[in-house]
Design a protein that fits this description.
Order of helices and strands: EHEHEEEEHEHEEEEHEHHHHHHHHH
Largest sheet: 8 strands, mixed
Number of strands: 12
Strand content: 15-25%
Structural class: alpha/beta
Helix content: 40-55%
Number of helices: 14
Distance between the termini: 60 Å
Strand order of the largest sheet: 5-2-1-6-7-8-11-12
Shape: globular
Radius of gyration: 20 Å
């Protein structure tokens, strides 16, 4: 008998990873807050499409519950692994909601943007938390029951999923989570969860708020010299904070973090290397032809995660006495666009004058 699995929050990442698990025959129940999405999964299953290289496919109809029906789990065997895939601001209540249905040895996997392990541990304890990063997965839920990926499979070219324990040891349960997420794409077990988490945070901090504040897709941001340079500045500040906190950072956009940090600080050689790499990425077929998740949220009128990305970096920097003016400025701009005080426009970034 395999584990009983729940996916709490069947949006883009939860839907993508969960659909592959279901297709492989895993015992999985999907929990979501969007009635039309739940009904589509129940009646037709989950459709998965890719912009390139992978044929479209669909699962069979799935076991799916609206959150108002979650109490039905009390009549079933308990959950062994619960993937929490909600937005960061929903983490605490989503964890509280599912934790009462966990088996005695059951645990929560944070398969999310941002750094939410501490929030989850505040509900279930550190011993019941596993982290999993989905790196450069570029997915969106484009209609009920349909997740679209703005690429093909990454395969050996890029490791998408990184799974680890908060204490860094390799355990049987992280090996099991690795097996499950590897049904979707390339994956590895890491002994450096916190370094992976901060590196992912830097990646998101360089892209998400930029899309949300400007209204642009990634390609249009990367091919604009000023916007691309501001992205380096955002990354540089975040990298320096992570280093000061003692994290061992991994590659970011397949670039040595130190190169990004020095490029954001104005080093000419590093800037040339950074620019060449990012422009090469943008000019690949289909490169950057997607809207990062926060840009998607802004278009849909949803709350953004800006306070849990760039705002989180600013808060951590303040705790250790580091100034992060670019991240602070972007946090303010995105917040104002989200509230309707500003219209999304590249001009917000182009007009910035930072020391």
């Amino acid at each position: 008998m395999g584990p009983r699995i729940a996916v709490v929050g069947t949006g883009a990442v939860g839907g993508y990873a969960g659909a592959h698990m279901a297709q492989a025959g895993e015992d999985i129940t999907f929990v979501d807050f969007w009635p039309e999405n739940v009904e589509a999964m129940r009646s037709k299953g989950m459709k998965i499409s890719h912009i390139q290289d992978v044929p479209e496919w669909s699962t069979d109809p799935l076991k799916a519950l609206h959150i108002t029906e979650l109490q039905n789990l009390s009549k079933q065997d308990p959950i062994d692994i619960a993937f929490v895939c909600v937005k960061s601001y929903d983490t605490a209540w989503a964890t509280t909601m599912i934790q009462q249905y966990l088996a005695p040895g059951g645990f929560i996997v944070s398969l999310q943007n941002c750094i939410n392990e501490e929030t989850i541990a505040g509900v279930v304890g550190w011993g019941r938390v596993v982290g999993s990063i989905a790196s450069s997965i570029t997915v969106d839920i484009c209609e009920p029951g349909h997740v679209r990926r703005a690429s093909g499979k990454k395969g050996e070219g890029h490791t998408v999923f990184r799974v680890g324990e908060v204490h860094g040891r390799v355990t049987d349960r992280v090996k099991e989570v690795h097996r499950l997420v590897a049904l979707s794409d390339s994956a590895k077990v890491t002994d450096n969860l916190w370094g992976e988490r901060w590196s992912k945070l830097v990646t998101n901090a360089m892209a998400n708020g930029m899309s949300a504040s400007t209204g642009l897709i990634s390609k249009d941001i990367l091919t604009n010299d000023v916007l691309r340079g501001f992205g380096a500045r955002l990354g540089s500040e975040a990298i320096r904070v992570g280093q000061a906190l003692g994290y061992q950072l991994e590659e970011i956009h397949h670039i040595d973090p130190e190169v990004i940090a020095r490029a954001g600080e104005g080093d000419a050689k590093a800037t040339a290397e950074y620019d060449a790499h990012r422009l090469e990425e943008a000019n690949k077929p289909g490169g950057g032809a997607h809207r990062p998740s926060m840009g998607q949220d802004m278009v849909k009128g949803r709350r953004t995660e800006i306070q849990f990305l760039n705002g989180f970096i600013v808060g951590k920097a303040q705790e250790i006495g580091i100034d992060t003016p670019a991240n602070a400025a972007l946090t303010d701009i995105v917040t104002r666009v989200e509230k309707g005080e500003l219209e999304a426009s590249p001009q917000h970034i182009l007009d910035l004058r930072l020391n």
